[in-house]
Amino acid sequence: MSDPVVIIGTGLAGYNLAREFRKLDSETPLLLITADDGRSYSKPMLSTGFGKNKDADGLCMAEPGAMAEQLAAQVWTHTRVTGVDPGNRRLWIGEEAVAYRDLVLAWGAEVLSVPVEGDAADQLFTVNDLQGYGRFRQAVEGKRKVLILGAGLIGCEFANDLSLGGYEVDLVAPCEQLMPALLPAEAAAAVQGGLEALGVRMHLGPVLSRLQPAEGGGLAAHLSDGQTIACDAVISAVGLRPRTELAAAAGLAVNRGVVVDRLLRTSHAHIYALGDCAEVDGLNLLYVMPLMACARALAKTLAGTPSEVAYGAMPVTVKTPACPLVVSPPPRGREGQWTVEGSGADIRALCHDAAGALLGYALTGSAVQERLALNRQLPALLA
Ligand SMILES: Cc1cc2nc3c(=O)[nH]c(=O)nc-3n(C[C@H](O)[C@H](O)[C@H](O)COP(=O)(O)OP(=O)(O)OC[C@H]3O[C@@H](n4cnc5c(N)ncnc54)[C@H](O)[C@@H]3O)c2cc1C
Asked: What is the Å distance from ligand 1's center to 9 Cα?
């Protein structure tokens, strides 16, 4: 039998690529390898599970066995790839070598860790996959108070979701506003108002410096500004870093992510990358829409028709129903001027270039209704 196409990772990137590939090629042996349990799920749902009262099993869409059958593929679960040997077209799982015809890196990104001191410092949870969600859910079962670290998109979504799930939420982040990398201040204030109306307590400025078991149970979270917050669990959502170490060790070009061109080719023949780990023509976008576009293009390439990926506009709907938010940041390197209209929860912030062309927007509250009309005016991110 010929060597298989091997995909490392069974997240949305890995499984969607496999699905697209099988639409075009039902013959080539296909092997998916994953360090986790291989269950198929939609990661964006991880920040809606408490509000919908769904545990990890409730969010699982298919077991790995069912995925293997559906994809006419082998799926190796709980199997960590430890090395890649591009020269000999094989990868390593410990001492075991696996040969490939083509290799696809879909191994995602990992949560940044925060330096925290204290006897309970090991009780920081992260939720970046279904298993992590399951562990966190179990830990807060029957508890009341959760402290969230991070005011980015994911921290804000967890704040909204945990509040809907009946938890008291404190959010701590060393910044002046929510989602500073994504939003103008007025839009951030609108989201903050929505979350505060749900009961979320914001602590913007300090960091968590020490986490101790509290007398009488629970935890005492000591902040750098001297405050102490009582909580039952801490979830860290301070950012993600694309996994690049194994690629770098194999001699592949890496930058913020694994560097690939529009064909999703790394710097070595027969090795490709997509999803959170990939930097596609300079863009490392950690969202679903870009990886779906990559999966369709790469499936064609792997099936024999080299196809470049193109990105249109990629607005992101942030799951903060307390204050609906849709945002489309300006493309990299395009300078623009923001104008902000509206007040309170309803903000319409538009970014235009000097010639008056729309580059991006942030819409909150009732202004989100304008997104479809505005999307038609947005520039493509990778034309
Ligand atoms: C809570 C949350 C909410 C989100 N909401 C949205 C949203 O609303 N909209 C949106 O567009 N995006 C959202 N995102 C982002 C989006 O979900 C991700 O961009 C996407 O799921 C990434 O998929 P991936 O397959 O690249 O990575 P992952 O899902 O992280 O998959 C990586 C895979 O690689 C495996 N792996 C890693 N290392 C190894 C190794 N050495 N050997 C073997 N296997 C390995 C892992 O086990 C896993 O199977 C959200 C993300 C989070 C965390």
From this structure: 9
The pTM is what? 0.97
Mean local confidence (pLDDT), 340-367: 97
Does residue 158 surpass a pLDDT of 90? Answer: yes
* pLDDT for residue 333: 86
Confidence of residue 329 (pLDDT cuts 50, 70, 90): very high
Let me know whether 104 and 28 are in one domain.
Answer: yes
Residue 203 three-state SS: strand
Same domain membership, residue 186 and residue 128? yes
Overall domain count for the chain: 3
Q: 174: domain range?
A: 113-236
Q: Which amino acid, 58?
A: G
Where residue 383 falls among pLDDT bands split at 50, 70, 90?
A: confident
Q: For residue 301, which amino acid is it?
A: T
> Is residue 295, in this structure, part of any structural domain at all?
yes
User: How confident is the model over 1-8, as a mean pLDDT?
Assistant: 94
In a domain, 381, yes or no: no
Long-range pairs for 375-381: beta carbons < 8 A, 24 or more residues apart? 375/313, 375/315, 375/328, 378/312, 378/313, 378/315, 378/328, 379/313, 379/331, 379/334, 380/310, 380/311, 380/312, 380/313, 381/283, 381/285, 381/290, 381/311, 381/312, 381/313, 381/314, 381/331
Atom of ligand 1 nearest to the CA of 47: 1
**Residue bearing the bigger pLDDT, 339 or 115:** 339
Residues 189 and 284 in one domain: no
Domain CATH number, residue 197? 3.50.50.60
Q: Enter the DSSP assignment of 331.
A: P
**Which amino acids bring their CB within 6 angstroms of ligand 1?**
8-14, 33-36, 43-44, 46-47, 80-81, 106-108, 127-128, 154, 157, 243, 275-276, 286-289, 291, 316, 319
How far apart (Å, rounded) are the C-alpha atoms in residues 361 and 348? 8
